[in-house]
Amino acid sequence: WGALEDVALAEARRQFEVNVFGLMRLTQQVLPSMRAARAGTIVNVSSMGGRIWTPAGGWYYATKHALEVLSDVLRVETRPFGIHVVVVQPGRIRSDWSAIAARSLRASAARSAYAAQMDAMARLLESYAGAARPEVVAEAVARALADARPRRRYAVPAEARAMILARRLLPDGAWERLVQASIRAAGREK
């Protein structure tokens, strides 16, 4: 995590390797068997960040946006073979992820021109401690796998669905103002 200018391109590539290319390579490996069986469900765990964005997470969000698009294309390509492709979009989930992201953000912003904004974003990430229990993600995956006709997307918890809906409904300028207001509020919480 960090301002786009501050994150080394090697780190950005690593995120794409893990979140996009590794996942798609595994998918390429399982598809021949699924096509032969004319059945199966691929569940890709993305993020609400595949549909929304905030400063500091540009590279991460780019990988999740890519995963969303690849999942949509894969869904259409594999449908004739009886294969379902589902995306689970977790929002704020209680885990070590937010603390790790906040530490990474603080390290990348130490001598950055964006330090104040990044510090506020780190505080927002640290506030994830009160987030939803991780089981909501497992439950969404289980629902997707159990349903004979799974939905295309499962956003969890309800807060993630609300954020994705807000982003879809708000014009770009209104979304940017909402994000900036959240950053200012976090900056005042020192």
Give a brief description.
The chain is mostly helical.
DSSP summary, beta strand count: 3
Q: Report how far the terminal alpha carbons are from each other.
A: 21 Å
Q: Treating each run of at least 4 consecutive H or I residues as one helix, how many helices?
A: 7
Q: Which structural class matches the secondary elements?
A: mainly alpha
Strand share of the residues?
5-15%
Are there runs of 5+ residues with pLDDT below 50, and where? none
CA-based shape: globular
SSE ordering: HEHEHHHEHH
Radius of gyration: 18 Å
The overall average pLDDT, rounded, is 93
Tell me about this structure.
The chain is mostly helical. Helices cover 60% and strands 9% of the residues. The chain is built from seven helices and three strands; from the N terminus they run H-E-H-E-H-H-H-E-H-H. The chain has helices spanning 9-37, 58-78, 97-108, 115-126, 135-146, 158-169, 172-187, and strands at residues 40-45, 83-90, 153-156. A three-stranded parallel beta sheet has the order 1-2-3, with helices on both faces. Helix 2 (58-78) links the parallel strand 1 (40-45) and strand 2 (83-90). The radius of gyration is 18 Å and the shape is globular. 29% of the residues are buried. The mean pLDDT is 93.
Topology diagram in text:
Layout: H1 9-37, E1 40-45, H2 58-78, E2 83-90, H3 97-108, H4 115-126, H5 135-146, E3 153-156, H6 158-169, H7 172-187
Parallel strand pairs: 1-2, 2-3
Helix pairs in contact: 1-2, 3-4, 4-7
Can you give keywords for this protein?
190 residues
